[in-house]
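Structure tokens please, single chain.
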Amino acid sequence: ILEIVGIIVALYLANGSTEDSNWKSALSEIVRGRSIAILIIGLLIGSIVGAERLAPTDPLFVGLFTGVLTLFLIELGAIAAERLRDFKAVGIRVVLLGIAIPMINGFLGALAGAAAGMSTGGVAVMATLAGSASYIAAPAAVRVALPKASAGIYVTASLGVTFPFNLTLGIPLFIAMAKALT
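Here you go.
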């Protein structure tokens, strides 16, 4: 749910910057789209019936999630591999942005968490969340809403640059920021 705002802003920036684009209809399509409706309905059902009554559905929804997610990520990787030449064309710029933007966002998240009076762990988590990329929802939304956008760039940037950077260096840096700020 938190990614919806980011996806809307990204689609606005991609589509709304030209006069001939109809970003209001794109926004309406996202908000009224089937995936958002299913997500909201699922959350409502879960909150109404509670965890105990949903437990019998766990094998379907919880148990299969990892496998379906794996297949989805394999498909995204295959699509990105087909468009790898697009990434080669922009190369180092995407790598630098895939590292710099998450670090800036993580630092701002750490500052916001510290200003809100969060604990060291809370600030570290806030920084990590702010410095993360969208690894699932945004690539899927971009693929549908911006079919001309190159998966070789946006998937490689999030899954091939930002994700491994955050796992190896980003999160330790965010923890250090949290310790310094609290």
